[in-house]
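As a warm-up, study this chain.
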Amino acid sequence: MTAASTRRILLASLIGTSVEFYDFYIYATAAALVFGPQFFPAENPAVQLLASYASFGLAFFARPLGAALFGHIGDRVGRKSTLVASLMLMGGSTFAIAFLPTYAQIGWVAPALLCTLRLGQGLGLGGEWGGASLLAVENAPNGREYRWGMFPPLGAPIGFIAANGMFLLLGAVLTEAQFQAWGWRLPFLASAALVILGLWVRLKLAETPAFREAKQADALADMPIATLFKNHARETVAGTAGVVACFALFYLTTAFALSYGVTTLGHGRQAMLGLEIGAVLFLAAGVIISSTFADTRGATAMLRWGFAGCLLSGVLMGPMLGAASLWIVFGWLALSLFAMGFCYGPLGGWLPSLFDPKVRYTGTSITFNLGGVIGGALAPIAAQALAMRGGLALVGGYLIAAGILSLGGVMLIRRR
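Now compare it with the structure written out below.
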């Protein structure tokens, strides 16, 4: 493999997930800051916010469907064409959100359209992460699978910085009235440029060696999802559970923490966005460190460290996130996202390693996205409801439960 082809493969796996997470983060941020009053009428702002978070969670429930759909295509037709199709669906849905009318303009049709596009985002996202991971891992030299596999997870901090950086910039140059009226649409418009870049890179790729070999040997599954659940049930359960802590950590330290810090604790939106951008650098560091050591010390050890960090984050959430000092808040965010890096970085290589090439796209995508439903879709909704009932200590208990569940998933594979 030439140096140019190596760079193209790693860039293609990185750019796709960067676009994926940029799209997801701008929606999560807008759901926390804008979509409640724009699309969901209610006299109680807390109920309005819950409705906005519910629309955010819709994509998570569409993602397993997208995983099954694009997983079938990826395991039957090939990785490259599937990655192109998933990126187009995901990016097109995000771009269209920029043009939606609000509830004040067309009534209940507005949230219906928003939820429809959110479902389109989720379907596209269902096939994106798993395919990007296979693109990297199935082309990786022996002994470097996790270091190559870390490029899709690195798309998370890149997409997050781009998304929050965009909102931070808009907050600096626009008034609150301008931002609420039209400024929130600009990040969704900007997603088109990233999607075009991703398509340009991916259209130049060749098919992965593992898929070519399976196709030449006539070893493709007729119905990958049926084969997956019949022959890889243990791996599917273990992989799904192993993903939960990663999603719970991320969406509680980003979407929920941002909304709680601004609306409940009274911190400035610009200050909280700045803290989030600084803390996500610890996520990138955790991904790089854990993925590098996973090639020499094993992915299981790195994941265990990450899940232990998730438990610690849950214990410290109340006293640190609820503190008056922004430095203490930043400390909790940095600790939680660093732990998430250890939960997340090795997944790029660990999930594909659980499955045979003939069901690998489906297996990786299904487990990642089912884990996302449990750990991600429910996290902001449950956290908001728990915070209203008993404060941050109850929300921390959610993180502790997520860490224990993911640890159990990894242990299930170890006992095999």
